[in-house]
User: What shape does this take?
Amino acid sequence: MKLAIIGCGGFIGSHLLDRLLRDESVYITGWDPEVRKIAQHLNNPRLVLHRTTINKPEVYDVLCQTIDWADTVINLAAICNPAEYNTNPLGVIHANFIDVYKLVELCTEQGKWLISFSTSEVYGRTLSSYLPDNCYEDPELYELSEDESPLIMGPVSNQRWSYACAKQLLERFIYASHHERGLPFTIVRPFNFFGPRMDYIPGRDGEGVPRVLACFMRALMDGLPLQLVDGGSQRRTIVSIHDAMDALLLMLAKPSQAQNQFFNIGNRNNEVTIAELAELMRACYAEITGDPRYHEHPVEVVSSDAFYGKGYEDCDRRMPRLDRAGELLGWKPQIPLRQILLETMAHYHYQYAASIEGEPGQKNQPSLAGASFPTC
Ligand code: NAD
Ligand code: UGA
Assistant: This one.
């Protein structure tokens, strides 16, 4: 199998390489300027890496050769950090649509199967969220189904939706290219994948505001309060990166089932409010460090204006319907949220232990009691 993977150096790409390169029959050409998360694979003779973005005019010919060579193309390239959606909307629209539009054209021209990572954010807010008190009595008004649910976003001035709109336009462009020009495609809509190597920890290996997992991890490690944006009543369903990679491997193994489909990939059993997530992460960190004081680690409420700046608006709830991935791929997520958090948080703790400064906490080597490490 010959795969081109664009954005292979990020969180999902790094796990995908871990899984795919175990198979001796897999050859990969990857594109990404970032390689820190895939250092373990850089000497693999079955990986050719272009350490650049795909959107520079001078690399176009090489990109054409990559697409020509590959059987299948996987697109992971993005800016997918909510803190950038309203503060760097042009960058977000470029990264998620304009910079990858030529990739879709090339796959169409060469008839190559394009598996493109979209997002649960294309659904926007639920219908329920527009009813008084976020009325979640009727699942038809909040469950998200690939072919039935409307995609509901707020006003243009709320630039939070720049990401969701760019992703939605890419989906529509891919779908139209399939219908009018025969492009074989698969759209994957991830619902909050969690796992080791997600994002960065501000002040250690990155700057800015990462996604919620890394924000809470940083706060726990540095003795800062966990911040609940607008009170933390928003809900997310969280799926393990390992379950998610199982789904992707099934897609690659079953092209006739996976092609020309949209798939929600999430875990309905792992739904929490963000306030509950904070509570659970405090408990998991107390277990990982062996320090019960983390149960009482401070939590504070902040407004979204203060946290993200003007133009932020939240997705209230993301409950995926997963029937399609079940029926066509035989996929069902397995890993419960507590296990996902213990594994992921232990990884962060171990990786950053030397620089832990906060209280309560332990500045010496971490105790990893109760935590399990990934097999990859
Ligand atoms: P990530 O930010 O960790 O990785 C994205 C990678 O793409 C980065 O390494 C970046 O350097 C690279 N990249 C960006 N533009 C590029 C370009 N033009 N050419 C080559 N490389 C480029 O993100 P991730 O969490 O691994 O997400 C991967 C994909 O899945 C994205 O499309 C994202 O929108 C989507 N997604 C992820 C999640 C999740 O829970 N992680 C949820 C929904 C959607
Ligand atoms: C994310 C990102 O948009 C994308 O990575 C991805 O496409 C999408 O999820 C998805 O899974 O499809 P979101 O879940 O809103 O979106 O981003 P997070 O940063 O993980 O935030 C989750 C929730 O926690 C939000 O309600 C946010 O306001 C809140 N939050 C975040 C806090 O309360 N405190 C924090 O410190 C950080």
Notes: The chain has twelve helices and 15 strands.
